[in-house]
Amino acid sequence: MKLTNDEIKCMTLFQQLTGASARDCIVDKETAIFVVSEGELGRAIGKGGSAIMRVRDVFKRKIEVVEYAENPERFVRNIFSAVEIKNLKIDESGVSRMVRVTVDSRDRGTAIGRNGEKVKMARMLMQRYFGMDLRLL
């Protein structure tokens, strides 16, 4: 995975504002997604959300922070930390590796996100880190 100069600058600024070490950064018009090292999520958010609010003010975007994990199952759980995952199955038997995530029907809207942004982010991160597709059931 190669990072652009802009992404490296964003990660450096994020690290200065939060004290958390960022592994990756994906920025678009409305959102900035930061993947932080394991155990750094609390530092990235800050006491009472103070650190993440500083980042939001500086970047003038919606900020998503995901804690990295070496294990794909743990990483998916970190991405969808706001919802209860009922079932998670990794299928590596076919041509493409697939992660199937089942959530409670009450949490489905939260898991999908406004205009599908949360599930798009999850698919992009799983493809980027593990070369896996993601299907939300």
Protein model, in words:
With 137 residues, the chain is α/β, with parallel strands linked by helices. It has two domains: 5-67, GMP Synthetase, Chain A, domain 3; 72-136, GMP Synthetase, Chain A, domain 3 (2-Layer Sandwich). The protein contains six helices and six strands. The chain has helices at residues 5-18, 41-45, 50-59, 72-79, 108-112, 117-130; strands at residues 22-27, 31-36, 62-67, 85-91, 97-103, 132-136. A hairpin with a 3-residue loop joins strand 1 (22-27) and strand 2 (31-36). Helix 1 (5-18) packs antiparallel against helix 3. The longest helix is centred in the N-terminal third of the chain and has 14 residues, at 5-18. 26% of the residues are buried.
Could you write a compact summary of the structure shown?
With 137 residues, this protein is α/β, with parallel strands linked by helices. It has 6 helices and 6 strands.
Layout of SSEs?
Layout lengths: L4 H14 L3 E6 L3 E6 L4 H5 L4 H10 L2 E6 L4 H8 L5 E7 L5 E7 L4 H5 L4 H14 L1 E5 L1
Parallel strand pairs: 2-3, 5-6
Antiparallel strand pairs: 1-2, 4-5
Keywords:
137 residues; alpha/beta; GMP Synthetase, Chain A, domain 3; 3-stranded mixed β-sheet; 6 helices
Distance, first to last CA:
29 Å
Helix content: 40-55%
Ranges where pLDDT stays below 50 over 5 or more residues in a row are none
- Count of individual beta strands: 6
Shape: globular
Structural class: alpha/beta
| % residues in beta strands | 25-35%
CATH architecture of the largest domain: 2-Layer Sandwich
Instruction: Indicate the radius of gyration in whole angstroms.
Output: 15 Å
Q: Count structural domains.
A: 2
Strand order of the largest sheet: 1-2-3
Order of helices and strands: HEEHHEHEEHHE
**Whole-number mean pLDDT:** 91
